[in-house]
Every structure is written in structure tokens, then in C-alpha cells.
Amino acid sequence: MKSILAAVMLCCVFSSSVEGADRIRIAVTNYNITYLTAGVALKKGFFKDEGFDPEIILTTASVSISALASGYIDYTMVFSAVVRAAMRGVPVKVIATFIDSPTYVILARPGIQSFKEFKGRSIAIGSFGSSADVVAQLISKHFGLDPKQDIKLIALGSDSARLAAMSQGIVDGAVVAPPSDSEGKKMGFSVVTKTNEIVRFPYMGLGTNSKKLTEKPDEVRKVIKAAIRANQFMIKNREEAIQILMDWAKTDRAGATASFDSTWKGFSPNGFIPEDGLRVVIDLAKSDAKIVREVPSTEVADLNPVREAMRELGLK
């Protein structure tokens, strides 16, 4: 357990300082457009309005799940990894979604013109069981390729690590989120697939542990409210959202603008998790883990907090 704490505490942190507020820790896997909901809620004071002093911690999906289950962090914004962990019996659940279609693009090294040309080649993802892994598998199947036989998926961590592996010829392609696609283009790579044009499912959201849901339901509801307000702000305030993204992702205006414009339509205005999209995530996880039993959505998700948050905000 000490190693989990060390892994979390060594990661980069975005935080505010709010005297008298409750400290909460929220894990993300990248400071990019995918997790901008957290950045906006922090920057615009939506967490503060609900009485929180948040730490936004950068760590891997696998570490965040271990830390979440152990109570070292309070929330994680990865989605698929929480679903998969819940199916393994880990006491965690997804409680909201803030992007309902993946923002990823598939980058390819020179000479690869289409996704089908990845047959027999390798693609970098963040970690196994992550949203990037889910996307890579779904896209492979869409183009008639077997993600287990025809393509080698390699877990390499952050987007920057995936781009570095491409530049060194270690992998032939990578699943990355904006603004890393712009950086990849500068390095001579090309975008062969925009995933949100092909697949839709809850992509980024919020997960917490069962103890938190039982013992602090008011806190959970308030955290969701702050995140929903952040999404609504971004939908309505393009220019300021882009400015926040520039600071959040440490990118220039051109990169931030391209990232935001290619993503904002996927921001959920209410945080609710649709049953059909959740089933996509569950069914793929079942296939990967060779689970044949029925997995009800209530095993991996608790929608009561988001329903309460929506009601308080006057949303349907």
C-alpha cells in the first residue's frame, strides 16, 4: 500500500488553495482536452463553490484504480478502467460521464495511409483496460481486423511517451488525444483515423469507491455538480475554455483551438451515463476477460448521485 501512495504522490499535481475547504484528490491520466472538465472546474471555482479544495493528480489508469480502491485518492476520471475493475470485484463504480464519445485520433508513421495497413504492426496505447485500449480494439474491429491477432497493442503510458516511441521506430502508430495529435503532425506523423467519427461510448467521466458512495453521498453529488457546471461553461464559452486549455495542456493557441473544436460536441451537458453506451464498455470488458456471466449495469455504475446533481441543477 505504501508503494501505491508513493506512486500517486510522485505525480504532477494541479491544485488550488482554499482555506477551510474540504481537500479532495482527483486523478487524471493526462492534462489535455480529455480531462479539461477538471481543469475548468478548478480554474472557474466550481469546486470551490461546492466547498472543495481539489488536487488534480496526474497518474496512470492502473495506479489510479489501486489508489481509489485503497482510499488514497477520492475520484478518478478514467471510465473504462473503473468498469473493468468493478467487474473484477474491486469496490469502485462509475458515477458520471463528461465526454460521451472518444477524443482520440490514431497517428501513423510515414508510409501508413490507412488503419487497415496496421495489420501485422504495432500501436501504442496508455495502459491495458484503458479507454485508449477500448478504442483501439473497437476501431480494429470496425476495419475488419482482429485486435488480438492482427495488431500488437503496446502499453507505453503518456501521450508524450507514445509519440517518443513512434519517433524511435518502436511502434508504428499511437492512440493519442488532442493536443498530442498536433504535436504528432509536427513530428511528421499523419492522422489516419478520428475515432469519434466511428465509435461512441462513455469515454471520460468520474469514478469513486463504494465507501465514498455509502459514507459521503453529499460530497459525491457536489463533485458531480461542479463537473457538470464545468461542461456547461465550456459548451457556452468557447474562447475562455480554449484559454484555460492552453494553460492546462501547456499548448499554444492553435493546438488548443484545434483540440477544442474537434471535441466540444462530445461534452455531456448533464453527466448522465446512457445505458447503451455503458453496455458497449461492459461487453468489450467481458470479451477481454472471457467473462460469460451477465453483468448488470448496477454492478459497475451508480447513477443515483448524477440524478440528484441533475435535479439540483434543474437538468433533465
How would you sum up this structure in a few lines?
The chain is α/β, with parallel strands linked by helices and 316 residues long. The protein has helices at 2-9, 36-43, 46-49, 61-70, 80-87, 131-142, 159-167, 180-186, 210-215, 217-236, 238-249, 253-261, 275-289, 297-300, 304-313; strands spanning 13-15, 22-28, 52-58, 75-78, 92-99, 105-108, 122-125, 152-155, 173-176, 190-194, 204-209.
Describe the structure.
This protein is α/β, with parallel strands linked by helices and 316 residues long. The protein has 2 domains: 2-101 and 201-313, Periplasmic binding protein-like II (D-Maltodextrin-Binding Protein, domain 2); 105-197, 3-Layer(aba) Sandwich (D-Maltodextrin-Binding Protein, domain 2), CATH 3.40.190.10. 45% of the residues lie in helices and 18% in strands. The protein is built from 15 helices and 11 strands. It has helices at 2-9, 36-43, 46-49, 61-70, 80-87, 131-142, 159-167, 180-186, 210-215, 217-236, 238-249, 253-261, 275-289, 297-300, 304-313; strands at 13-15, 22-28, 52-58, 75-78, 92-99, 105-108, 122-125, 152-155, 173-176, 190-194, 204-209. The strands form 2 sheets. The chain has a 6-stranded mixed sheet with strand order 1-3-2-4-11-5, sandwiched between helices. α6 links the parallel β7 (122-125) and β8. α2 packs across α11 (238-249). The chain is globular and about 55 Å long. It starts with a helix and ends with a helix.
